[in-house]
Amino acid sequence: MIWIALPAAAFLLGLERVTYWYAWTRPERFAAWLGRVPGRSCSDPVAGLERMFYGFKVIQFAVLAGWCMLFAQDLLPLPTAPPGVIAAGLVLLALGQLLNFSVIWRLGSEAMFYGNRFGRPIQWQTGFPFSLLPHPQYLGAGLSVWAVMLIMRYPNPDWIALPLVSTAFYVWGANFEQD
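Predicted structure:
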């Protein structure tokens, strides 16, 4: 079952990364595409990317929840990890969310959703959390995925699949956002 679920999950999780790659590397084409989306055209690519971000978070949550439900023994999946692992997972989740919300607070939507790529003047940020590392949002998101899967699926053999896929996508995202 994992060999069917994993490619489907990777495809769904990869939609977000591919969209961000397209917006980052081809901002004019991305903005033009957004303006032509039937019924949802958007003249502001930053606002369009922000709306897509929330949709991608829904997809990410659905993939994680769906994975847990698919591989759970019961209809309602409950944590499978021992108490110490659950505690570690909760610490990772708190740290990941602290990083994520700190990035949102520090950058604002103009900078977070590639305003610089769409010709808007964006001030470079060096305060927390960027004082710690260059891509805290990717680390925060990755830690959150690892935490959820640790809590919900560890020690089952499938627990590591989605965190590895997510980590690969976040590393790729951090690499293409270097300039």
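Summary: The helical segments are 2-25, 27-36, 45-71, 83-112, 136-153, 161-176.
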